[in-house]
Design goal:
This protein is α/β, with parallel strands linked by helices and about 300 residues long. It has one domain: Aldolase class I (TIM Barrel). Strand 7, helix 9 and strand 8 form a beta-alpha-beta unit.
Length: about 300
């Protein structure tokens, strides 16, 4: 009599935790061999800089670097948070690089940037969340590049008091902080953050500096409902946010938060129309939209729309 076939031991079945769904035709990144792309890469490497383009595996890196656009990520490549959507590594960060401000300023000069986006990892280990270092980067960058407009994409500075005001005191042209997702999903997607704290940060930034453009972004495809996204729009408008970005969540690995679904480009267009009806000065909504995607062109549009 044949022995019964036993199932394989579950520990030996190597199924990914959250299988990654195949990308649709409208989400495709391409390689580049352009001189501009390699110039950007060389400047980043020679100055030993970190970019969110690389650390977060941004799908737009080829397009942006071919235009000499790079989003600099300061205060190291290691984050003290462990957000379920993010591909930036988590752990104990190293000490701040005191020469980083001048390195960033030199890179901006070398690339001849009209507009630069500067972001950072979360540094909950620092008393001020790294805001003083952030300010120094902005100030030295502006001193060396007086004609370059500066956009900051900041952490939430949760439980750091008024640390965000330190960055505002350097007078960035755009103050960006991403809300990321709807409140219901925060516990799973952004467990170290608080939805209403992020809203308050954006509201206070505009209150403290009425001339600064405020900006925030949300990802879709995490399991949110349309009415929840619309509620986030309303909350951001209540916080006087000027500019909203909406992009497709792309699951980095099988260990990250599962992708619920890919939104069709028509759905992004629908969300853009709804958001514009809410009164945002500018809305960018597409599958490949990211916080710093086309940031220089968008800044020009923001100024024009405010004037009009």
């Amino acid at each position: 009599m044949m022995d019964k076939i036993r199932p394989r031991h579950p520990e030996k079945v190597k199924n990914p935790v959250n299988p990654i769904k195949k990308k649709p035709a409208w989400i495709r990144s391409r390689l580049s061999d352009s001189k501009e792309f390699f110039l950007t890469k060389t400047v980043v490497n020679q100055n030993n800089l970190v970019t969110v383009c690389q650390e977060a595996n941004c799908p737009n890196i080829t397009e942006c670097w071919s235009k000499r656009h790079a989003t600099f990520m300061i205060m190291g490549d290691t984050c003290t948070r462990a957000c379920a959507f993010c591909d930036v590594k988590t752990g104990k960060p190293e000490k701040l690089d005191q020469f980083e401000p001048i390195k960033i300023a030199n890179a901006v000069k070398k690339l001849n940037l009209r507009h630069v986006v500067i972001t950072s990892v979360d540094r909950d280990d620092l008393p001020d969340g790294g805001s003083t270092h952030f300010k120094e980067v902005v100030e030295i960058t502006r001193k060396k590049n007086p004609n370059t407009t500066i956009e900051v994409l900041t952490p939430d500075f949760l439980r750091k008091g008024d640390s965000y005001k330190i960055i505002l005191s350097a007078y960035p042209d755009v103050f960006n902080h991403n809300i990321e997702t709807v409140p219901r999903l925060y516990v799973k997607v952004r467990p170290g953050a608080r939805y209403f704290s992020s809203l308050e940060l954006l509201k206070n930034a505009k209150k403290d500096n009425k001339q600064v453009f405020t900006k925030s972004g949300i990802m879709v495809g995490l399991g949110e409902e349309k009415d929840e996204v619309i509620q986030v729009m309303d909350d951001l408008r209540s916080a006087n946010v000027d500019f909203l970005t909406i992009g497709q969540y792309l699951q980095p690995t099988a260990k990250h938060h599962p992708l619920d679904r890919y939104y069709h480009p028509d759905e992004f267009k629908d969300l853009e129309i709804i958001a514009k009806s809410k009164g945002f000065l500018l809305v960018s909504s597409s599958p490949l939209t990211r916080s710093s995607y086309h940031a220089d062109e968008d800044f020009a549009k923001l100024k024009k729309n405010r004037h009009n």
